[in-house]
């Protein structure tokens, strides 16, 4: 019988205090390397997230001909060969666990005059890629793979001539779908417009602007026109990832006597849904030292423990906090009253079925605390907590959320805990510094 690795998280005996530097934003780290590889001059990237997902992007861009020099764990210099300088890879491109790497590169490579094949880990191989492949194919891309070209491995073939610009009405608000089409649209024969039901995060549009590429926004529609070249900036400073800050926002809110300062957190308004929801629950979070760097807003966040109460939110805010739902669910478990989360069906096609994962793990740690629907959760706050062993599902956001639940509650034993390396390798060390291990 296989022995499963575990990590025990003990309840905190005192409030958490101090200052934390938040690791670089994962979404922006991916794009900083990818877009820098389209220029022809060196780009100095600082506060890069040195985690497995982002390193998958680094490996892929190297295989495509870019030079990536690592000056330190969080500092890179990337030099490309110009907008049309990507080269046919000599090997299969491994996206690992990273949906961002795969989906954005499908868009970037669809117009290229060469063949590229992608693979990934077991989790990524189960995730649906049809939502990107279908519109790219409508532009003239040739992409083949398993399950009628919707699952890895996927091979991108050289198209017959240029891709065609088009207007695409996306059925889902997805930054990855939007980004893939905008990147493909840079090489198309006319304008490409993506219309979303609700505006998704806009890191791609902001970073393209830093590279001299104009996008036009009209309501929930974004348009890009063919691009002749990009003007790479000399430097990019990646702000801290609000998705990583989210765990400490919740922990400090829940544990009495806590007050922490989270430094250099990205507060792009398309990502700050968690701040809105926690504020609606009664959290005490204050922004200080607000600034803008590389087109991205950043601030320090001062978090003081507060008594939380339940709230209700739905699909309109979901694109602004989809990755934070597991840890928001943890906050809801400790709040007074019920929290109702609706329109969260996207969670069923993440690294794992996160709706079911939340329901199953909460049922073990707080029996009777959660009801899961097809795209919803109802969490009953104040349910009696107990210590139990629960799986991480090899999902980094589930593992970290469960650790926060255990530290703020009765403790927890997490099975297969090392998946946090995907986005936050220092997470357990940071938690241990607060006394939660």
Automatic annotation (TrEMBL):
Regions crossing the membrane: none
EC number from the UniProt entry: 2.5.1.19
Binding locations of 3-phosphoshikimate: 26-27, 31, 174, 176, 323, 350
Gene3D superfamilies hit by this protein: Enolpyruvate transferase domain
Pfam families: EPSP_synthase
Keyword match Amino-acid biosynthesis: yes
Pathway this chain belongs to: Metabolic intermediate biosynthesis; chorismate biosynthesis; chorismate from D-erythrose 4-phosphate and phosphoenolpyruvate: step 6/7
Main location: cytoplasm
Keywords: Amino-acid biosynthesis, Aromatic amino acid biosynthesis, Cytoplasm, Transferase
GO cellular component terms, semicolon-separated: cytoplasm
Catalytic activity entry: 3-phosphoshikimate + phosphoenolpyruvate = 5-O-(1-carboxyvinyl)-3-phosphoshikimate + phosphate
InterPro entries the record matches: Enolpyruvate_Tfrase_dom, Enolpyruvate_Tfrase_sf, EPSP_synthase, EPSP_synthase_CS, RNA3'P_cycl/enolpyr_Trfase_a/b
Binding site for phosphoenolpyruvate: 26, 99, 127, 176, 354, 397
Subcellular location(s) per record: Cytoplasm
One term of GO molecular function: 3-phosphoshikimate 1-carboxyvinyltransferase activity
Keyword Transmembrane helix: no
Active site: 323
Domain of life: Bacteria
GO BP annotations listed: amino acid biosynthetic process; aromatic amino acid family biosynthetic process; chorismate biosynthetic process
Family affiliation: Belongs to the EPSP synthase family.
Quaternary data: Monomer.
Protein's recorded name: 3-phosphoshikimate 1-carboxyvinyltransferase
UniProt organism field: Selenomonas bovis
Gene: aroA
């Amino acid at each position: 019988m296989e022995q499963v690795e575990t990590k025990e998280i003990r309840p905190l005996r005192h409030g958490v205090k101090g200052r934390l530097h938040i690791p670089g934003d994962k979404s922006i780290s991916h794009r900083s390397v990818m877009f820098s590889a389209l220029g022809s001059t060196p780009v100095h990237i600082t506060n890069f997230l040195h985690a497995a997902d982002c390193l998958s992007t680094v490996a892929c861009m190297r295989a495509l001909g870019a030079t990536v020099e690592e000056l330190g764990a969080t500092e890179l210099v990337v030099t490309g060969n110009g907008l049309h300088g990507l080269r046919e890879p000599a090997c299969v491109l491994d996206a690992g666990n990273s949906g961002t790497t795969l989906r954005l590169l499908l868009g970037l490579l669809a117009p290229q005059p060469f063949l590229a094949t992608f693979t990934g880990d077991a989790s990524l191989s189960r995730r649906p890629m049809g939502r990107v492949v279908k519109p790219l194919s409508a532009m003239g891309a040739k992409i083949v793979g398993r399950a009628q070209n919707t699952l890895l491995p996927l091979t991108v073939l050289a198209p017959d001539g240029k891709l065609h610009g088009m207007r695409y009405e996306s059925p889902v608000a997805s930054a990855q779908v939007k980004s893939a089409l905008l990147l493909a649209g840079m090489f198309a024969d006319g304008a490409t417009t993506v219309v979303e039901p609700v505006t998704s995060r806009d890191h791609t549009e902001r970073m393209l602007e830093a590279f001299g590429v104009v996008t036009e926004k009209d309501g929930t529609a974004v348009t890009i026109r063919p691009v002749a070249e990009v003007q790479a900036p000399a430097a990019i400073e990646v702000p801290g990832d609000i998705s990583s800050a989210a765990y400490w926002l919740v922990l400090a809110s829940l544990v009495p006597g806590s007050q922490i300062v989270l430094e250099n957190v990205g507060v792009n308004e398309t990502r700050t849904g968690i701040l809105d929801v926690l504020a609606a629950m009664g959290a005490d979070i204050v922004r200080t030292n607000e600034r803008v760097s590389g087109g991205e807003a950043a601030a320090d966040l001062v978090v003081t423990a507060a008594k939380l109460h339940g709230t209700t939110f739905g699909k309109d805010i979901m694109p602004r906090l989809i990755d934070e739902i597991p840890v928001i669910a943890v906050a809801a478990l400790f709040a007074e009253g019920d929290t109702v989360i609706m329109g969260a069906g996207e969670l069923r096609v993440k690294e794992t079925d996160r709706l079911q994962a939340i329901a199953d793990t909460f049922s073990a740690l707080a029996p009777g605390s959660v009801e899961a629907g097809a795209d919803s959760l109802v969490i009953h706050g104040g349910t009696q907590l107990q210590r139990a062993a629960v799986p991480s599902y090899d999902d980094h956001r589930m593992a970290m959320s469960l650790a926060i639940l255990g530290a703020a509650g009765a403790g927890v034993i997490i099975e297969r805990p090392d998946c946090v390396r995907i986005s936050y390798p220092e997470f357990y060390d940071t938690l241990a510094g607060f006394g939660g291990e």
